[in-house]
């Protein structure tokens, strides 16, 4: 539900006239919030296909944050148009492939659920789509012997990737909270997904988590004892960081899992703080000890935006200490607005730079694989988290004015 901020939508929308041709983006920042500026730019380029894929859903999460923050009907109508295009008249999802079970397909459920909660009257087509996706997850997604959802079935049997916690976690938690709050086993099941990843992927010394693990130990990359993959990949760990802080919004405080997940989040925040690149303020694509600064490694923008969002939100909801973490987020924010936000030609729009296209455990998951993937301009997996971080930063500034 859009909870209105103290500042009116008018305040945030006031300075949207294209007066900034030729100026560096940062010089206009005082006048024009990056959240709406970036959102309006990307929407205006017509580069967001009307599909149900997680890439778009990640961008929509950013637009949700912007709508939540501005209450501007433009963003709600944009989301509605994008989602209505993928649903049939009875709320089934167009082109659904019933043989393809992957957590990535579940992420759009969060967008639809958000629309359901903010639309009045409640749209039964959205509810049908939400119920459908929840049923696909709960009753049709294969599980490891310990109960963890396979990342993709049949492609990645018995594998859990950190990415999957973002794809299905906040959706399951919101669903449980809104429609099934009494069912303790739903909460236990959500907690279990995080607990399995913690057990297999977390390094208690560094505080960081490897990209994924294979419970059957069969993947070419699987460590013969733990099943974990070889590296800490910035975005996988970013998905996980966001998943934790977003799930905490819904998870009942009365459930012991709330404290446990909070502890995991804070432990990761500590690692994120420790591994921030001192010079730039961002984070390296491959983050394990010994890799930052290596030939081919670089400061990646989508992960940097995810960590910034997580830190700022953690401060806002009172689970991270402001004195300890705000400076970290502020340095990363400086980097993003100076280096990753760029002008798009002379039309006053913004581009988002430096987001790695993909990172998968399809091959060997080794260092050369990760650094060999190209970076893409205006990649929605980076734009979405940047919007989320921008909204948090703008809300922070409004609070502390
Ligand atoms: C909307 O904003 C409120 C207040 O800041 C926050 O508690 C809530 O989590 C936000 N929701 C979304 C979807 O961003
Ligand atoms: C919903 O509509 C689609 C096609 O428009 C159809 O295939 C499907 O059977 C319908 N589902 C229900 C529950 O009526
Ligand atoms: C765990 O982290 C420590 C500290 O960064 C590192 O030395 C060690 O190699 C890591 N272990 C694994 C299995 O990655
Ligand atoms: C502006 O953004 C669009 C969409 O990503 C892109 O196709 C175009 O190349 C960009 N133009 C410039 C000058 O950056």
Automatic annotation (TrEMBL):
<protein>
    <submittedName>
        <fullName>Glycosyl hydrolase</fullName>
    </submittedName>
</protein>
<dbReference type="InterPro" id="IPR008928">
    <property type="entry name" value="6-hairpin_glycosidase_sf"/>
</dbReference>
<dbReference type="InterPro" id="IPR010905">
    <property type="entry name" value="Glyco_hydro_88"/>
</dbReference>
<dbReference type="GO" id="GO:0005975">
    <property type="term" value="P:carbohydrate metabolic process"/>
</dbReference>
<dbReference type="InterPro" id="IPR012341">
    <property type="entry name" value="6hp_glycosidase-like_sf"/>
</dbReference>
<keyword id="KW-0378">Hydrolase</keyword>
<dbReference type="Pfam" id="PF07470">
    <property type="entry name" value="Glyco_hydro_88"/>
</dbReference>
<feature type="signal peptide">
    <location>
        <begin position="1"/>
        <end position="30"/>
    </location>
</feature>
<dbReference type="InterPro" id="IPR052043">
    <property type="entry name" value="PolySaccharide_Degr_Enz"/>
</dbReference>
<dbReference type="GO" id="GO:0016787">
    <property type="term" value="F:hydrolase activity"/>
</dbReference>
<keyword id="KW-0732">Signal</keyword>
């Amino acid at each position: 539900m859009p909870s209105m901020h103290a500042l009116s939508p008018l305040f945030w929308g006031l300075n949207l006239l294209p007066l900034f041709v030729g100026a560096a983006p940062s010089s206009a920042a005082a006048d024009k919030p990056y959240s709406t500026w970036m959102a309006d730019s990307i929407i205006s380029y017509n580069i967001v296909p009307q599909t149900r894929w997680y890439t778009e859903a990640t961008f929509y999460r950013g637009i949700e944050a912007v709508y939540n923050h501005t209450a501007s009907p433009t963003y709600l109508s944009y989301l509605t148009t994008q989602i209505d295009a993928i649903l049939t008249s009875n709320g089934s999802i167009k082109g659904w492939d019933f043989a393809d079970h992957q957590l990535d397909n579940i992420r759009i459920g969060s967008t639809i659920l958000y629309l359901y909660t903010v639309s009045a009257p409640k749209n039964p087509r959205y509810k049908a789509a939400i119920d459908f996706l929840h049923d696909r997850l709960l009753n049709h997604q294969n599980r490891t012997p310990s109960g963890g959802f396979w990342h993709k079935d049949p492609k990645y049997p018995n594998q859990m990737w950190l990415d999957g916690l973002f794809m299905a976690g906040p959706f399951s938690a919101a669903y449980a909270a809104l429609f099934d709050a009494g069912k303790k086993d739903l909460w236990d099941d959500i907690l279990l997904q995080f607990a399995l990843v913690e057990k297999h992927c977390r390094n208690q010394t560094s505080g960081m988590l490897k990209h994924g693990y294979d419970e059957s130990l069969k993947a070419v990359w699987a460590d013969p004892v733990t099943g974990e993959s070889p590296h800490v990949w910035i975005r996988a760990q970013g998905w996980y960081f966001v998943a934790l802080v977003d799930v905490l919004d819904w998870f009942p405080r009365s459930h012991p899992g709330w404290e446990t997940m909070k502890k995991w989040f804070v432990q990761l925040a500590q690692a994120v703080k420790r591994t921030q690149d001192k010079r730039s303020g961002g984070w390296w694509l491959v983050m394990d000890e010994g890799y930052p600064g290596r030939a081919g490694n670089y400061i990646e923008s989508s992960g940097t935006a995810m960590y910034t969002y997580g830190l700022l939100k953690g401060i806002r909801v009172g689970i991270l200490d402001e004195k300890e973490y705000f400076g970290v987020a502020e340095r990363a924010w400086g980097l993003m607005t100076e280096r990753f936000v760029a002008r798009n030609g002379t039309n006053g729009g913004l581009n988002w730079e430096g987001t790695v296209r993909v990172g998968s455990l399809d091959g060997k998951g080794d260092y050369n694989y990760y650094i060999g993937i190209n970076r893409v301009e205006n990649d929605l997996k980076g734009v979405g988290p940047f919007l989320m971080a921008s909204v948090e930063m703008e809300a922070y500034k409004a609070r502390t004015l």
